[in-house]
Amino acid sequence: MTGKIRDFTDADYAGVVAVHNAVYAEWLNSEADQRHEDAAREAKCKWRRFVVEEGGRIIAFGGYSQSAWMYHPRKFFITVNVHPEWQRRGIGSALFAHVMAALAPHAPLSVRNQVNEAYPHGIRFAEKLGFKAGMREQESMLDLDAFEPERFAADVQRVADAGIAIAGYEELAADPELRRKLWELETEISPDVPAPEPVTDPSFEGYCAEVFGSPNWFPAGFMLALDGERLAGVSNLWLSQTPGRLHTGLTGVRREYRQRGLATALKVKVLGKAKALGYHAVMTWNDSSNAGMLGINWRLGFVKRPAWVDYEKVLASED
Prior knowledge:
Layout: E1 4-7, H1 13-23, H2 31-40, E2 48-54, E3 57-65, E4 75-82, H3 91-103, E5 110-116, H4 120-128, E6 132-143, H5 153-161, E7 165-168, H6 169-172, H7 178-189, H8 204-211, E8 222-227, E9 230-239, E10 245-253, H9 262-276, E11 281-287, H10 291-300, E12 303-314
Parallel strand pairs: 4-5, 10-11
Antiparallel strand pairs: 1-2, 2-3, 3-4, 5-12, 6-11, 6-12, 7-8, 8-9, 9-10
Helix pairs in contact: 5-9
């Protein structure tokens, strides 16, 4: 194999981000993003990263990690990314083996990752290593320049007529309990969002660090539904590294408020706000079995893009 595998250091952030952005030009990362992700990870979540260096240049990176939103002490996410100029030279296979050897002391039950359908070589690589395809996450994009929020005025009015107000985070920010209310809302909604593993709740402190400390935190893109003073639903957008583009975070409604049009009204309002602020596109991701949310997105004008497929390699039985 070309290159030397070594542990990741603080000086490697720029090199790792450069490899990521060369591999995923449509989903850019930044050094600030990566540093925040590492710093905001809850203490219980294990992680380790390695780089492959050749001639003083990082040409690949990989590692394992866990998430507080989908936490199991013996289940892990795994990453292997090789710069396109260095692919098909055995680097990915050697790096995967190195990561798995480092992970072995934690007695992992499984490892998983996502592969985009537009990368058939990535799919072949995962399948060659024994990963099996599972949940399919549909990616789609809305052209905000063509989006006409006024076409959906009746949907917004229907919610208002039912006594539900829609307000932005910035309008409510004076409430000292707003962040805790958001945490409670999202931890109640999130278990109902399709995921490859059971959803778990981050701590309030971990949630605040992850959300409000993010360089992509976009308070103007947080829209909330209120029944009196109670938060009933949320739809939020996040900044991205692509100029003019935003990414969808969570759109969800408490169970007792569903089937009343709140999700549609929330999305219309937040997308209209993004358009008014001069953004040109919004990307979103939904499980392909989530017919309700996908139906809302298609109606609003989102267009399908290649999906992300969850791949899992089972290493041992949970029993």
